From TrEMBL:
It comes from the Bacteria. The chain crosses the membrane at residues 12-29, 75-96, 108-129, 150-169, 228-255, 267-284, 296-318. Its main location: membrane. This is NADH-quinone oxidoreductase subunit H. PANTHER family: NADH DEHYDROGENASE SUBUNIT 1, NADH-UBIQUINONE OXIDOREDUCTASE CHAIN 1. GO terms for cellular component: plasma membrane. It is an enzyme of class 7 (translocase). Keywords: Cell membrane, Membrane, NAD, Oxidoreductase, Quinone, Translocase, Transmembrane, Transmembrane helix, Ubiquinone. It is a multi-pass membrane protein. It is found in: Cell membrane; Membrane.
Amino acid sequence: MTPEIMWKLLEIILIISLLIPIAATLVWVERRMIGIWQDRHGPNRVGPFGILQSLADLLKILGKEDWIPPFSDRLVFVLAPVIGAVCVLMSFAVIPFTADIGVSDLNIGLLFFLAMASLAVYSVVLAGWASNSKYALLGGMRAAAQTVSYEVFMGLSVMGVVLLTGTFNLRDIVLAQTDGWLIQSQFVGFSVFLIAGIAESHRLPFDLPEAETELTGGFHTEYSGLKFALFFLGEYLSVTLISAMSVVLFFGGWLMPAPLDTWLPPLVWFILKVLFFVFFFILLRTSLPRPRFDQLLAFGWQVMLPIALLNLLVTAALRLGGVL
């Protein structure tokens, strides 16, 4: 085995070993931030500032009975949460954390990310179908309609970035922002991408596939133990993934304008930018009400689609005219 392959394997193991604890930590961060936002304590019993609450929750959920309903399709029921977690983890393979840190430097990195986002919908659809439960099936159908719809707008929103940089390679897209971040010319595309990302990750206010007041728990109603933990892991990793992609595509990745670029290492700047968007995702949960499902789809097809197409058309015209 060559040193290069060994280094890549070490890089993969290191990134995965960091991502899973990050997802658990985000649970504590979310509860703590929402507590502050709503003028209450949040976790404050287990460990200093309740920081060990996530560990206690993890031990509890792993200690629960890993039950499989006798009326379910056993094989599909077990595979569904695995598919979701694997798709999200695979997406991190193309994220360039710095100029030198990143698992894969694919020429089609952006397309790979969109492909993994598309495959992740199979997880919730199969979970809803295999559970053989009305609530789970309704949640799975909602997830399919919501995810497939907003994938269209997500794909269109990043085409402006491709037009301006001339590449699908995420590292090259970051390097193309050396003279200025793409948020300056692609604010509309970024807005569409962020909204689509919220819908893709099933986060509030777009968590309709698992709306507790309507569907008990949606597609994961019948899940418990480790399999439920995999769904939980996938959701919080999706938040981190959308935040990282927003930074890479529109906010210069690890790059910072002078003299800020000399203040901290590139990896630290990248992490700080990602954390900003993660906090935005969390505080969004406390700020907006949940719409009806028909309103969500109508907003997508009647508002988001025309805006995404218009942004692409204007970007192409300005690019052709030499303005951008």
